[in-house]
Structure formats: structure tokens, C-alpha cells
Design brief:
Blueprint lengths: L1 E3 L11 E5 L3 H14 L2 E4 L5 H13 L4 E5 L12 H4 L1 H4 L3 E6 L4 H9 L4 E4 L3 H16 L6 E4 L1 H12 L1 H6 L2 H10 L5 E6 L17 E8 L5 E7 H15 L11 E6 L3 E7 L4 E4 H7 L2 H15 L1 H5 L2 E7 H9 L2 H8 L11 H7 L4 H8 L8 E10 L8 E4 L4 E3 L6 E4 L2 H12 L9 H11 L11 H4 L2 H21 L4 H18 L4 H15 L13
Parallel strand pairs: 2-3, 2-4, 4-5, 5-6, 7-8
Antiparallel strand pairs: 1-7, 8-9, 9-10, 10-12, 11-12, 13-16, 14-15, 15-18, 16-17
Length: 541
Amino acid sequence: MTFIQKEKTDHLNPPRVLVVENDAMTRHVYAELLKHWGYLPILAEGDGIYLLENAGALVRNQRCRLALVDLRLLDNFDEQDKSGLHIIPNLAPAACIILSAFATPNDFNDARQNGAYAVVHKGDGPRALRKELDKLAGKLCSQKKEIQFDPPELLNEIGPSVMGTAVAEQFYDQVLDAFIQLFPNARRLKVEKLGASQPSHNYLSAPRLRSTLLTVREDDRQPVIVKLARQQKAKIEIDNYNKYIDEKLKRAYYPALKGDCYLWDIGGLRFAYVGTLDQVFSNFFLNQSTNRIKTSLEQFFNETWSPHYEAATTREHTSLFRLYCSVWGDEWVERLKKYQGFHPEEAMDSARIAKLQPPNPFEWMKTNILGGQDVSQMEKIRVAVTHGDLHGDNMLVDSNHNIWVVDFERTQPGHILQDFIELEVDLISRLPNIPENSSAFYALCLAVCQPDRLQALKSDPRIEANAEARKVFSTISTLRKLAHTRTGLTDIREYRLGLLFNTLFRATLAKNQQRALMLGSILCYRLDHPNETWPPAHWNY
């Protein structure tokens, strides 16, 4: 366990305080006082507009959480000069205390309306300033807060994961400060990754790009769900939640948003944890019967998410690929172009490779999507609000086997089949404990590529002989039937393209994605030979 209190925080720098004062002698006096009080002063330099610009640059570069700002920064003798108030928005998320030797009651009111935490009259002396500063730091800064975290090693993982290693090493306190803001009255926080308390059965965690989902127990309270992500992504998730989730789903099977915070590089969201939540879907899938899994998926797609399917619209002359990019962002296209990790020998035995000569899915994408043509261009595409990241670790299952969803960073209008496809790819590439080079896994990949319509799948003796492959196959067959029922679509080519995009998106996010790449390779062949007997004779191996 780690204690965020004075005798236990030698590895943390003191809280950084930006000082914005137009008198050079006065700001250096503040600097000495701040050092004596246990803070790290960051001094804005310059005169006039240059002082304001330097303050804006410093507060960002040093990730200051606190700021002392003089009311009159441009002209001490101008009663109309309230430039200190005007720069408060530019210093956010630093919390500001306004200083003034001339403050009037109206100035106090104006300061608070502009977002200042407090106003301190310079004539009241250092003691009054320290009182307000310590009070503010005690609310916002982990270095000034007595709180116990358990376990500390998980906190050390979160910073590099969310902010990147370089920023996390220099400004590690942002992770701790996020918890301070989300749990302002906590004395002890027990933190673990969402679903970590459940047996893993050796399945991999779903790949995440700079975000993490946690369960957090404050003191003796029931746990809550916390998501930490890059600041801008956290803000996007709040917007998505308000626009597409809150009071938009049937039977309210989603955790309620209870709080949020934003620092320089990190944002935090706090969701109510439903008391009957039992496990993540990944574990539920491994532990439950296919009939129970089918019932839970039917509840989610036919009831919980059904309002979004009922409100679907049609877009004409649209690229399916670009539609997926609108949900995932264009940076995945750059990862796609640069990817060098296609090694089919790691997923298929050498005899199978020699016989099949599997196509490279990345080269296929460069030729057929990113080159002069885009074969995913469609006359009409159905669009609905999709979760956008529907994998087994973003789906929670309660004690009544109802599915709840979390993590709404990518929730927005997208391909109406996307959620069905994304969960199918997750089932194939991550959850089954089946060797990639086994005949059962190979047969599973062939089976999902076989149908010429969006419908239930046709099984294979090699799948039936393997219990895990059989379970994955049965669940995917349920998803295909639900996709057809909820959307009314039958176009399998549209579904195959979505499968290909999802497999490659996953492969570019994390290492050791040979299952996804194997499926992607087979999909490319199937897309090039849609009318041939499947599997082709030389693939029936």
C-alpha cells in the first residue's frame, strides 16, 4: 500500500504553483514564501501582453495545478484593469487565487464569477494567502492530501498507460490528483482493474489505447467504476454519454455517471457500480453455457440497445471504410500503413502455409481500399448509434445475467453492424483457448467466412470435436442471427468487410494478434472469390 502524505511522498515534487505578478520584486517574494510553505513556484516573466503569454505557456508546460494571479497585470493604476480575471480560462485546469492590493467587493464577485477559487487582499499578509492556498491544495493536490492507495503498483501502471511514459515520469502526480478529485472525502482507496478479481482462464486483456477501466472502493463504501483516459478523450466520452446513452437505452442497463475531472494530460470519469454486477462478459462467456450466453446477448441487442437500431438512417454513396474511420479516428490508418507484423507462420503450421499461400491483409487493404479504388464504397449503408468498442471487457453481466455496457469513448453513429462484428472478432481472436495452428481454429475461421447471406453458420466436424471452438461458433451464430433480426440486412459482403476492418484494427493496437491476422487473411481471399465453392479445394486442409 502507498500513503499519499508528507512522510511517504519523497518521490513526488511539491505542488507546482504558477505565479502571475507584474512586479518582479513581488513575484520573487512570493517565490520564497511558496518554497518555505512546501510548494514549487513557477514564475511567469515579462511585461504587459508578454507576461500573459508567458503565463499561458508556463502553466501548460509545467502542468501547474495551482496559480496565484494578480488582478491588475497590465496597469497597477488603472481601475478598469482586470486582466487577471480575463486570463483565468486560459490557465485552466489550474485553479486560481486572485491577489490584489485594490480589490473591491465587486472585484471579489467578478473573480468568483470568472472561475477564481478565492480572492486574497495583499494587505491581509502572507498568513491569509497561505490559508487559502493550503485549503485549495488540500482539495486538489495529492502531495497535500492524506489518503491511502492499495495497491501502489497498479497506480504505477496507469500513468504510462494513459499519458505515455515520458509525461508520466515527469508529472506522475496527475494520476493521483485525478483520484483526489473523483474521491474528495476518501481516506483509503482500494483500486483494481475492472474484472481483475475474476479468474482469467488465460485469456488476454482487450487492447486499449491510452485508457483504463477500474473498480475503486472508497473506505467502507460499495465499489464504483472509474475510467482514466487522455483528457480530450475523457471529454469526448462525457459528450457521448450525454448524447447517446443517458436515458436513451431501454431498462437503463448502463452505469450512471456520478462525476468527472480534467487535468492537463488525464481525465477521469466516475460511474455508479451496480450492486448486482457479477463479472465481465469475457469471464461470463468462459464460465456459462451457450444457452445462457445466447439469452444474455438477446436481452442486450433486442432490448437494451434496440432504440438505436429503431432510429437507424440510410447514407447513400458512402465508403464503409471511411465510416469505420469516423468512429475509430484516422490514426489507425497510419498504423495500418506502417504495420510490419504479418507472420502467418506464427498462426499456421508450415505445411498449411505452403498449401494455402494466405494473402497479406495489409497489402490487400493498400490495393483495394487505400489505393486508387475503394471496394468498400456502397450505394446505401445503414447507420445507427453503435457502442463502437464492444468487446468482452466493456460488457458487464449482473447476477440476473443482464448485460451492462461501459466505456463510451467511441459511441456515435456508425455502421449498423459494427457492434455485432466487433464482438465476433473479440470472440475469435481473444477468448477461446485454442491454438492458432490447430485444425479446430482453422475450421472456425473458414466457417465464419462461408455464408453467402447474413444468417446462422454451418458447422464443421473439426469444430464440433473441440468444446471451446464449438462454444465460440455457437455464440457467433447467435450474433449473426441477431444482426439480421435487428437490422434487416442480409448483405454478407458488407459484413465480411466489417470483419476485416475490425481484425486489422485490433491487430494494429496490440502485439500477438496472430489469430486476428489469420482470420483477416482468409477474409481477403473470400472477398476476392465471393462466388466460389467454399472452402476451395486446396484450402480444405
